[in-house]
Write a structure and sequence with these properties.
Layout: E1 5-9, E2 13-20, H1 25-37, E3 42-52, H2 54-69, E4 74-77, H3 81-89
Parallel strand pairs: 2-3, 3-4
Antiparallel strand pairs: 1-2
Helix pairs in contact: 1-2
Length: 104
């Protein structure tokens, strides 16, 4: 998928497709912020992410910390291969809650 897309399903599940890079950051950061502001636990489906860079990793870390600080859960669902590799490279795979069925 060449286009960047973010879908907020209900109020707690966010699906991101396309590149999560500095060039698309204004779009997905705004949507992540809106999802963070919603009540309850949150799930972020990353199965459609085609590229990820340090700015996106930093935003996910901040999102995880904000969720933890407000006693909520953040789950990363079905991270694409590039997301999984980036999290492994940064030694962050265990920092995030990624359901076993969602791991490659």
């Amino acid at each position: 998928m060449n286009e960047f897309e973010v879908r907020l399903e209900g109020r707690r599940r966010l699906q991101i497709a396309g590149p999560m890079t500095l060039s698309t950051a204004p779009d997905w950061r705004q949507r992540l912020q809106a999802a963070t502001d919603a009540a309850g636990d949150m799930e972020v489906d990353l199965s459609g992410v085609s590229a990820i860079d340090a700015s996106a990793i930093q935003s996910l870390v901040c999102l995880r910390q904000r969720a933890r600080d407000s006693a909520r859960r953040l789950r990363l669902l079905a991270p694409s291969t590039c997301v999984h590799e980036a999290l492994d490279f940064c030694h962050l795979s265990e920092f995030f809650e990624i359901p076993r069925a969602s791991r490659p």
